[in-house]
Amino acid sequence: MTIFYSGSGNGRHEHGVGFIVKESLVKLVKKFEAVDDRLCYIIIEGKTSNIAIINCYAPTETAINDDKDFFYDNLERVYDMIPRSYIRILVGDQNAQVGREHAFRHTIGKENHYLVISSFRTKLANSWKQKRLKGRTRLEIENTKDREKVKSYRGILNNELMKTSQNTEQNLEETWNIVKDSINKSAEVFKKENTFNGKNSWFNERCKEAIERRAEARLKMIQDPSPDNIEEFVKNKKAASKILRQEKRQAEKGLIQKIEEHRLNPRLFFKKCRSIKEGFKA
Fold first, then answer.
1. What DSSP line would sit under 172-216, residue for residue?
2. Does the pLDDT at position 237 exceed 70?
3. How far is it, in rounded angstroms, from Cα 101 to Cα 24?
4. SS3 breakdown of the chain: % helix, strand, coil, rounded to 5?
5. In angstroms, rounded to a whole number, what is the distance separating the alpha carbons of residues 3 and 20?
6. What is the model's pTM?
């Protein structure tokens, strides 16, 4: 085994991240860089593409904002620095602070900290499958038990079928398409509620203004790449990233707080968890 380590040299044994690589795989390591005591990355040679694994030890949500911003600025810089042709993987301790483990408290402390042993496999996305699922309406089965919604569904369906029943010159295929479209339109009353409210529901006017300032500075830099314009663009780019990160983090905290309101109802609790997870994957 070969250890690639990034940590502090103050002798206090705080923080620190690294990789333990099998001897048979050391020859595939093209580069290792220790950024600081919370961040490092390693680049491994792959068959079709190189793999960059970023290992991080994030500060907790209770840490001061300057420490969090410094860490995420470094993480963003390292992530953007790695070529896009590489497969980029982020691992490490995200410090979610979920749950307690009394059995190992004398070793790992109050929060959960586990040694993560990962086996990586490259999987290519099926674009045809994504296109096939995109735009598909999802229905909430629980809504079919609501008498008012069932009544509304029947009324809408009856009205839709009455509109088209007057045309008697339709063939079998046209009649079936009309019935199918009527059922789909009526079933909108059972449509599943989107808890996440869109992929970037946290994107507000503050984010929009920051992006606009960054775009203006970028255009100015392209037209006149002077040191002052380059510095102004870098400044606006960092400010925009910071604002986007803060707004997204605040939105995520709000969603988690809503989930906690249902912690006494396990069925509803896990249902809300799944809906938010699906939202972030969208």
1. HHHHHHHHHHHHHHHGGGGBPP-SS-STTTT--HHHHHHHHHHHH
2. yes
3. 35
4. 50, 15, 35
5. 5
6. 0.45
